[in-house]
Write a sequence for this structure.
């Protein structure tokens, strides 16, 4: 009905565009009077651009009057009638309006007739279905009820030994046979699953036992590294120092240089062994999840570093009360490495700056440690967290290349991610998450972190 009368209104509007320019009420009246061909139309009205009524059509004179100011585009059911209006366009300019009001009596009659037909047909179908169901009950329902009873018993008691009784060879009989076959198959499969479960449990037990043995061997290896390897290094350090102290006056400058290199090399190897042992312990240490104040941890770490280099001028900015969840000892190692790198690589600046803070993104805390130090080329960022990979030579900055690998392992154990952004000569920023509730915290998110809000 809406489509029909909207189309009729548009046709009349198109036929009235010439007459509306000249305010030809007669021609407009002839056009609007064509609505008399449709018995459902009650009134039709033609208005100019100012809203003045120029022509009208009424099915019953004085029963209804044209409204004073109908809406420009009105389509809908109001007061049990259908109303529609359409602008009269001339060169895409609105020069008037056609308004039609149509009775919905025919529509209501058709709806009532349709409902009556549907109800009659539904009642007939229900009566036929009732007699049909009574007829087939004895041939279909009773066997199906038997199957249902057995299925419920099997589900409740897990007893797959029951079988349904087959009375005939029709489709229901075939269904009973298939049901019995299914029970036999399930019973066989359950037995097979039980056997596989026993085998799997045995394999898990064996693998767990092998893993425990491997862990004990790793512990023994770590102990050996910690004591047996470091002992010769201490001997080298001690005797080289004693040699220089007791016989230093008999050695030339080259010999002194050699001894210094020996001590430096033994110290570096001892430090490397310590870092490797720390990396191993980080991987194997049991994780204890608890609430942590990263601000307090950061302040303690920076205080220790300041005591070691009191002559440096370092501007420290740490957001207060940075909340985190994780293993306190592992997170302390993580921060010690990140802040230590910021402290080390900003050493060549007259005034070093280190910032520790966090920001919230989609329910996940993203922590960061930034500095204004040397920085690095981002094309080498993929090597940052690999063991023994360093972006600066030992002559520039000391280090073993294990620190960031240790940080990466700690982040992995906390189910988080770590990434970095840097520019050469402008410092670096390391971002990381700990037990994030959302997975939307990967590389690229850094572009959405505004550090100025946290400084």
């Amino acid at each position: 009905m809406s489509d029909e009368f909207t189309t009729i209104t548009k046709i009349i509007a198109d036929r009235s565009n010439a007459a509306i320019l000249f305010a030809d009420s007669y021609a407009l009246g002839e056009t609007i009077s064509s609505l008399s061909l449709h018995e459902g139309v009650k009134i039709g009205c033609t208005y100019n651009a100012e809203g003045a009524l120029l022509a009208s059509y009424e099915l019953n004179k004085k029963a209804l009057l044209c409204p004073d100011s109908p809406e420009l585009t009105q389509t809908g059911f109001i007061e049990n009638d259908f109303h529609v209006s359409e602008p009269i366009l001339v060169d895409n300019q609105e020069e008037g309006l056609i308004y039609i009001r149509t009775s919905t009596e025919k529509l209501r009659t058709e709806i009532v007739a349709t409902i009556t037909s549907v109800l009659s047909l539904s009642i007939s179908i229900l009566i036929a279905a009732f007699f049909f169901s009574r007829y087939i009950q004895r041939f279909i329902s009773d066997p199906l009820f038997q199957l249902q009873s057995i299925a419920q018993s099997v589900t409740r008691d897990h007893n797959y030994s029951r079988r349904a009784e087959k009375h005939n060879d029709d489709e229901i009989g075939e269904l009973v046979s298939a049901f019995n076959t299914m029970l036999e198959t399930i019973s066989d499969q359950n037995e097979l699953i039980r056997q596989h479960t026993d085998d799997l449990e045995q394999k898990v037990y064996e693998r767990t036992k092998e893993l425990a043995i491997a862990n004990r061997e790793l512990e023994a290896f770590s102990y050996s590294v910690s004591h047996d390897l470091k002992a010769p290094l201490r001997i080298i350090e001690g005797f080289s120092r004693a040699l220089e102290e007791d016989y230093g006056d008999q050695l030339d400058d080259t010999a002194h240089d050699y001894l210094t290199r020996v001590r430096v090399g033994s110290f570096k190897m001892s430090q490397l062994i310590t870092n490797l042992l720390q990396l191993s312990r980080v991987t194997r240490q049991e994780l204890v999840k608890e609430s942590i104040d990263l601000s307090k941890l950061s302040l303690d770490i920076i205080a220790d570093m300041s005591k070691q280099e009191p002559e440096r001028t370092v501007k420290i900015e740490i957001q207060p009360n940075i909340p985190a969840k994780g293993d306190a000892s592992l997170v302390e190692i993580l921060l010690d490495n990140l802040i230590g790198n910021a402290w080390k690589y900003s050493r060549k600046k007259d005034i070093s700056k280190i910032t520790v803070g966090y920001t919230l993104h989609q329910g996940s805390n993203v922590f960061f440690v930034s500095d204004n130090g040397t920085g690095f080329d981002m094309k080498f960022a993929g090597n940052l967290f690999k063991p023994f990979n360093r972006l600066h030579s030992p002559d520039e900055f000391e280090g073993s290349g294990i620190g960031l690998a240790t940080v990466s392992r700690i982040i992995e154990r906390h189910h988080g991610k770590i990434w970095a952004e840097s520019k050469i000569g402008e410092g670096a920023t390391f971002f990381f998450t700990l037990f994030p509730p959302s997975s939307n915290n990967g590389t690229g998110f850094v572009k959405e972190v505004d550090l100025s809000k946290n400084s």
The chain has a mean pLDDT of 80. The CA atoms of residues 138 and 266 lie 96 Å apart. DSSP finds nine helices and twelve strands in the chain.
